[in-house]
Design a protein that fits this description.
By secondary structure, the chain is of the alpha+beta class. Helices cover 28% and strands 26% of the residues. The protein has a single domain, classed as Alpha-Beta Complex (Aspartate Aminotransferase, domain 1).
Length: 179
């Protein structure tokens, strides 16, 4: 375990925190709703997102029966978790210039997406995705209508894949994952 150390005052200039390098003239995107006392509401979302509200509404409209729940974390602010009551389908993150969708695809889902010509533009991201125990982590920025259309198409296909892997096992509608 690495323990924090203190540096003598004369070496304080050496303890410069590394900041991400942003090309000159490019503004860093800013997260919206970082105050835990101000939860997103439809009125605030419309005001803060501007034209990106259309992307937000489009993504949510494709999310069907999935539960949508705002959650706050100190490092990220308010994030919309969309889940099936057990596992997250995706997280929606709000920025001043658009929205982002963060999600994880399973091994089989990733392999299936890599076979679908419609998602050819996503192949590099799918192939380079970081592997975690839950699957492959992906993050999609949505700043334009074409990006929104592409991501909503991806989400619709992912939801179809996941619903195809579920079978109804009783009249109580409990679901069981196929092996």
């Amino acid at each position: 375990m690495v323990r924090p150390t203190t540096m003598p005052a004369r070496n304080a200039c050496l303890a410069v925190k590394r900041m991400p390098i942003v090309p000159e003239g490019v503004a860093m995107k800013k997260r919206l709703f970082t105050d835990d006392n101000v939860a997103p509401t439809e009125v605030l979302l419309r005001k803060q997102l501007g034209t990106a509200i259309d992307y937000y509404m489009s993504v949510l409209s494709k999310s069907g029966h999935y539960r949508k729940q705002w959650q706050f974390s100190r490092g990220n602010g308010w994030i919309l978790k969309v889940d099936d009551m057990h596992k997250a389908l995706y997280y929606l993150i709000l920025f001043d210039d658009g929205i982002e969708i963060s999600l994880t695809v399973r091994n089989g889902e990733r392999a299936e997406f890599l076979k679908i010509e419609e998602f050819r533009s996503l192949y590099p991201q799918l192939e380079a995705a970081t592997k975690y125990a839950e699957g492959y982590a992906l993050r999609f920025e949505i700043k334009s209508p074409p990006e929104c259309k592409s991501v909503t198409g991806f989400l619709e296909k992912l939801m179809a894949m996941r619903s195809d892997s579920m079978t109804i096992t009783s009249p109580s509608r409990s679901a069981k994952v196929k092996a």
